[in-house]
Design goal:
about 650 residues, alpha+beta, 5-stranded mixed beta sheet, disordered N terminus, Heat Shock Protein 90
């Protein structure tokens, strides 16, 4: 995992008392100030001194109002930059980026013949901050663009420390995107410059970040070499801040299969963090030691460190680490023959995994939507510009305007090309979103016991509608399909759901299959339960309906019929029946088929688990239906399900 460096240079702190005194003194001076210039300067200094972000921003805004009156472009830029820093500290990334971009525009307008170097330095810092904002907002393309612009300015003045900082963050950005070659190139450049400048702190950061790349690319010997370099340069055993690096070294030894060495180092790291206030580091160190115990099959030790992690989660919530701990607990209990706790912790692990997946997808969707809105605004601006220029062309009456006409026409062509490129990008973005949606649906449906053949065939049907320009049919099919997926995702996270919700999901599934098989069968639901708010386990009946469609209707071109009954018995148990008029099980056994009913197998496993936990409650019986002459005329499945009120 990448450890994010602290990327801003912190000012030396003063005591709260002395700052408060200075602020009071400045406020008194403000009351006696006679010019707007002096008032603006005092308010700006008060904003810098304020430790409370909201109070600081309030002072900056007042100072900016005076500077706007004075038309002091450079100081307006400085104030906007300072507001952005305060917004960043409040974790308001969008606002911070907005004020920094406003500042960058003002810096660009404030150049004179005598201040080029000064403004270049200010603009370089501003562009660097914009890059950081986009990095933390996970907009990596914009982040790289801003940091590279900052680097270009800093290279002009050979500002070594700032150049090293740019190389470092560029390496981290590419590392976050798993672009290891680019990341390594930037970090190597930064390391070389840090060595030339004998900048120890920068060398420590570069060695540590390069070691992260080597771990990710499985070059463990080199990762070990660079981690040890960082450890030595940072003071070795005499610096308690090296505890994280020590844990990383132990982790690398584990991957080099030097388990005894790894054990000693990881235990030392855990002891260093044992009394630390840094709960995240304490948890991470315990989980790393747990990974070693899992590898050496020391299940009781693994159980001990994992339970220690669990107690820390009461004070510090970290889904990534909780996922690791839950998985370690599940394998420990499994090997200690405690199947119930093994299953419970595996379910917990799966829920954390799904939560992380959902978070990443949500962030990706937000990023794509933001990109779409940005491109849309750019397109609107381009269209508006074209309209204004065309209007100027129409008003052209003399030779000068005719020359403008030629320039405007060329710009129009250029703008048209830009609009066309934006349109192509938008289409590519839509195709990319569709591909992501397909991948997500396939993974979720497998976890929710939906048969992968159904997903594959449904997506093929959608693709077929789209390719034949059947837009309405595609929208109808896709609408029902998305609603079904949503129901399944919601239901799969719950042990029991309302019967009404279960019936709604089954109806959607049957409707989709009916559309896909184009009239091959009909179905009817018979509900003989007065209270639809009773609860049942989700997706318990669906696999048997699936078998009735896939197997029972095999060979039928039309006339297939499926009846599903839900009936409450006297002892608060629901009888569910699935009856089809298909070919029967005998015919199914004679014919080979590539369809493997994974859902039915998972359902049988679920029922076995329910019965082990609660006694013999759930029951399944499958009956072959025959006519008077003994010929197969279908199959009936009866399932007894206890109701929960």
């Amino acid at each position: 995992m990448i450890k994010y460096a602290f990327l801003f240079i912190c000012l030396l702190s003063v005591t709260s008392f002395s700052m408060a005194q200075e602020i009071d003194s400045l406020e008194q001076a403000f009351g006696s100030a006679k010019t707007d210039s002096v008032r603006a300067s005092i308010l700006y200094k008060i904003g810098i001194l304020h430790s409370d972000n909201d109070s600081a921003i309030s002072s900056f805004v007042k100072a900016r109002a005076y500077e706007v009156k004075l038309a002091n472009t450079l100081q307006i830029a400085n104030i906007n930059y300072a507001i952005g820093l305060k917004k960043f500290k409040q974790n308001q990334l969008d606002s911070a980026i907005y004020f920094w971009e406003e500042a960058a525009a003002k810096f660009g307008d404030s150049y004179t013949s005598s201040n080029v170097k000064k403004v270049d330095g200010l603009l370089a810092n501003c562009l660097y901050s914009i890059g950081l904002g986009y990095y933390y907002a996970r907009n990596y393309s914009q982040s790289v663009e801003s940091i590279q612009s900052s680097l270009k300015l800093r290279l002009q003045y050979a500002d070594a420390n700032s150049i090293i900082g740019c190389y470092n963050i560029l390496g981290i950005i590419h590392l976050a995107q798993e672009e290891y070659t680019e990341a390594e190139q930037y970090l190597d450049q930064g390391l070389s410059l840090a060595i030339d400048e004998t900048d120890t702190n920068a060398m420590v950061n570069m060695y540590a970040n390069l070691a992260s790349i080597y771990v990710e690319t499985k070059r463990y010997n080199r990762a070990l070499e660079y981690s040890q370099q960082a450890y030595r340069l940072n003071g070795g055993v005499n610096n308690r801040a090296n505890a994280s690096t020590k844990m990383n070294i132990g982790y690398i030894y584990m991957h080099l299969n030097k388990l005894d060495t790894a054990r000693v180092i990881l235990k030392e790291g855990v002891e260093l963090f044992a009394n630390s206030d840094d709960l995240r580091s304490r948890i991470t160190s315990l989980n790393l030691l747990g990974d070693l115990y899992a590898r050496t099959k020391e299940w009781k030790n693994l159980l001990e460190v994992s339970n220690a992690c669990m107690t820390l989660y009461e004070e510090y919530d970290d889904i990534q680490e909780q996922k690791t701990t839950a998985y370690n607990l599940s394998i420990a209990y499994e090997n200690l023959n405690n199947e119930h706790l093994a299953y419970k912790n595996y379910k917990l692990y799966a829920s954390f995994k799904d939560s992380l997946f959902t978070q990443e997808k949500a962030k990706e969707v937000d990023r794509l939507e933001a990109k779409y809105e940005f491109e849309k605004k750019e397109k609107d601006i381009a269209v508006l510009t074209e309209a204004n220029l065309l209007k100027e062309i129409e008003l052209a009456e003399d030779k000068k305007l005719r020359l403008i006409l030629i320039g405007v026409f060329g710009f129009f062509v250029f703008a048209f090309i830009i609009v066309f490129i934006l349109y192509r990008k938008k289409q590519e973005q839509k195709r990319h979103k569709l591909a992501l949606k397909k991948m997500e649906i396939e993974q979720r449906m497998l976890r929710s016991q939906m048969n992968p053949h159904f997903i594959f065939n449904a997506l093929n049907s959608i693709q077929s509608y789209i390719s034949t320009n059947s837009t309405y049919q595609a929208e109808v099919f896709l609408s029902k399909f998305s609603l079904l997926v949503r129901n399944i995702l919601e239901n799969s996270t719950q042990e029991h759901i309302d019967l009404e919700k279960e019936i709604e999901t089954l109806t959607l599934y049957l409707e989709l299959e009916k559309l896909r098989f184009e009239g091959k069968f009909t179905y009817q639901l018979h509900i003989e339960i007065a209270d639809h708010s009773v609860k049942v386990p989700p997706m318990l009946v669906q696999p048997f309906i699936e078998n009735a469609i896939i197997h029972g209707m095999k060979g039928k071109s039309s006339g297939g019929k499926i009846d599903i009954y839900f009936k409450e018995t006297e002892d608060e148990v629901m009888l569910c029946k699935v009856i089809d008029n298909g070919v029967g099980r005998g015919a199914k056994l004679k014919k080979s088929t590539s369809h493997k009913s994974l859902s039915t197998a998972l359902t049988n496993d679920r029922i076995r688990f329910f019965n082990q936990e609660r006694g013999e409650i759930f029951k399944i019986s499958i009956i072959d239906l025959k006519d008077d002459e003994g010929n197969a005329k279908g199959t009936k499945v009866e399932l007894l399900i206890p109701l929960i009120f």
